[in-house]
Here is the input.
Amino acid sequence: MCILFLWILFGPVQLLAQSGSYTMTGIVKAEKTGEPLPHASVKIQGTRLGALTNTDGWFTILEVPVDQAEAVVVSYLGYAEKSIPLDPNIETQNLIIELSTSEYVVEEVVIEAGTKQVMKSTGMSQISLNPAQIQNLPSLGERDIFRTLQLMPGVSGTNESSSGLYVRGGTPDQNLVLFDGFTVYHVDHFFGFFSAFNPNAVKDVQLYKGGFGAKYGGRLSSVVELTGKQGNTSEFDLDAGVGLLSGNLSLEIPLWKKGSILLSGRHSYPGLDNNLYNKIFDLFVEENVNPNVTDPSFQFYDANAKITLLPTDKDVVSVSFYNGQDDLDNSRVIDADRRRETPRGTVGVLIHNEISDLLSWGNWGVSGKWSRKWNPRWYSNMVLAWSNYYSQREQIANGEATIFRRDTMITRPLNNSFIEDNNVQDITLRLDNELKITTNHTLEFGTQLTSHDISYLYTRNDTTEILNRKDLGDLYAVYLQDVWTPMKGLEVQGGIRTTYFEPTNQIYWEPRVSASYGLESGLTFKAAWGKYQQFTNRIVREDVLNGSRDFWVLADGNDIPVGEAYHYIAGVSYEKGSYLIDVEAYEKRMSGLSEFSLRFSQERRGATPSANELFFTGTGVARGVETLVQKTQGKYTGWISYTLSEVVHNFPDLSDYAYYALHHQQHEIKIVQSLELGNWILSGSWVYASGKPYTAPGGLYELTTLNGDEYGYINVGSKNSERLPDYHRLDLSASYTMKIKRSRLQLGLSVFNLYNRRNIWYKEFEIQGNELIETDFQYLGTTPNLFLNFNLR
Here is the structure.
């Protein structure tokens, strides 16, 4: 047995499985830059054999029959399909297949017309995104990867104030976001209006909406895997772009065709002040209700660096670096006169308050990776990664309020100060292996070790410590899964992930299975089931006065349980020519959900409850049906999707009944279209969704104190029983590309919310006198954006 195992791992390069067959190996690259292309499709025409390239562009196909194989056909999102005829004399080992976006024909190689396609639905609940093409879609200020993902079926597209992803009823913290192997905990720039990833530094994006394999763990909802660009290995290249919010620059430097260096960065402009910038700020600062607020100061940046070395034709060594940060100085002076005259005298309040309000948040990430192709059957990569997310806010108020009560006047100091500091660090060592046992069996196995260090401090008025946590804990995981093809057209993937979590001293078993059965007619049936655990959680802290915030903590099994979810998915797809129809139904049952609230601290537990009494635990269920109709090839591409869903939560200590979650939207329709006309690309998107739930006051009542003062109080209605108006908007974009020798210049204009739909973000309620005042806070109206991009090659 030992000898057989060694033969599988280190056997001869040309592995004959049977008479008249051979093993094909190779790498798929971009012709222009030499960049390896992950998740490219490689098929043997005349057979049902095929493979997907791994993260470094390599592929292996076993037992290719000499008498049936007609050609190797390679395709990748955003590139032209390439077909290479096969004959007995062609070299089938270590093939180098280069894909182009051009249209031309050379001897014995056929290249079909390229396409500007942005995304494609592939596999079970999986979507592939081409970052190079998202510039062809309408945008709000910046080209944005996560904003584009929000246009995909199953991902909420109405969250203008957050670039986080609400996938199939999950929340953004339930998504595992990986960039070159390190975890990114916070994906927002500029209050969430665009994400923290520069598209110029990203090569490939894979979104797994559910039912993902045992290789991934630690989240309940989905996985977003981003692969950073390696850079041009042949010649120097430069990309630059400007928009209304920031400028960006990317450099690609070859290292003697044995590697490359990528440097990329974005930065907001000094003294940024334009229509788009001011519109966004008006949503977050108090200028529209208080004319005395000073202008805030804001800036953001992100930077990527990656060095890749190719010491041999079997090894890839790379180091990837990322840092992004936002800084906001929202210090202000508030002067408010809320006095009114009554027959019995002056009542009300006169306020003067000087507030220092500083907020900073950002991410660091570093990873080192070594990949090796030991032989045509065995590929492995090892990643050592460090990740850090930080958020610090300090608000200090120095003012006073003069209260008028008919014949009396009382002056009181205003001290609504607080400090909030959240820091998340992890160090991860991961080893992944892929071993092709036979044509019908591919074994994937690996291990992960992660050390967490998470702290959170929240104090009020310098002395009152609301919460002070310091969480340390290690996680050890191993996984094993087998991709099995027992018969023609049928593929089964079964696996298990096992995790030991030190803070709870427990072992968690996560079995998973998925299957697909494809017919030659293009019809495919698919299903998946799996169990998933989450050990790091982002808790929403409800705060009426200062706005709700969120913070990360580590599960402890007591106040904060380990999250758990079961995925149930079934679907069918039909693909013919350039058209794809895909329907999937899903149900996700969740437990161990957590919230943090001061809502009941005084009524139910006294004025100073302990910190653990402020955490609430609940369950939830998300279910729905997604329908996608997509045109995938040609000058005219796009998709139409419809999602029918519901998200129900049950927190017994917060509500006596189950209720719709805040991000529940029963109906959602997305229409995304793109047309290429010569050098012009015209595109548009229309999003419609039914209104989200909210909690409205049930009524207003007054209480009279012993000294005769009257105070108004809101009687809170049923939790999330009301609905905001339906959401919809239309975005359009037009861009023109001109070639200057080998360089390319793109000019574009996009218009966000063309017909100026005043969608409501949330409602706020306030008591003024004996009246209850309702205020609608609205999202952005019509917002144009200009952009310019330059590419040297």
